[in-house]
Amino acid sequence: MLAGAQSRADVRLIDAAGGLSNVGLLQVNTDAGFGTVCGANAAAADVICRSMGYARGSVSSSPCGFYGGADLCGAPGSPVAMADLRCSGAEWSVEECSWSAPDDACMGHAYDTVVYCTASDRAGAPQGAVRLIAADGSPSIDGRGRPEILMESAWVPICSSGISSGAAAVICKSMGFSGSAGSTKCTGNGCGTVAPGVSELACSGAEPEPLQCPHEAGDDVFCAPSESIVVTCAGEGESQGRPAKESAPQLSG
What we know:
By secondary structure, the chain is mainly β. Helix content is 7%, strand content 28%.
């Protein structure tokens, strides 16, 4: 453990706009002020999120420099609080975990840790959950991306074949967004490499989730990855296959 690095166990997550969020750049309060974390294990996310009042968390596998199409890395020259944060998951706060001093590679902020917190204590998303994938393959954080539905423990894209005008609205609504600008066919790398598992999605727009709309799935779907759809959702929602985004707890001064 890096002795004396922390004056308090305060942690926070900062989104692309610089505001407090339940998903974003992890920062830990040290004697030198808030600094980023250069790498963390999966159990550290649970400890971090519990210390902020959430039920559980996860560490993003996508780099901070292009997380959902946004750069969440720390600003050049800003502090790096610690490296290789390791927790068992039983700790009450980060200060009970172990870490090491950041090296020169960490100071460039390319390895800063991004964490997602949720108030749900479920270990996984329910069947029929929807998530959005950005063009680079990371979770979308701007409401635009390729929607995927969780079916039989696999995330499958949606084919453009037979899709109705109301489908995009249902897809976005199921993630907590207020509306949709419609759907388009994907292009280039934004199509991914997984073939759609749902097609002929004929939503009226009133259904609460896509699988409650008439559709075809499984062996009845004959679509290539290039036929996947992309949707643009409006308002605030949770596009990572989990319950709608929760408000971040307020930090005490």
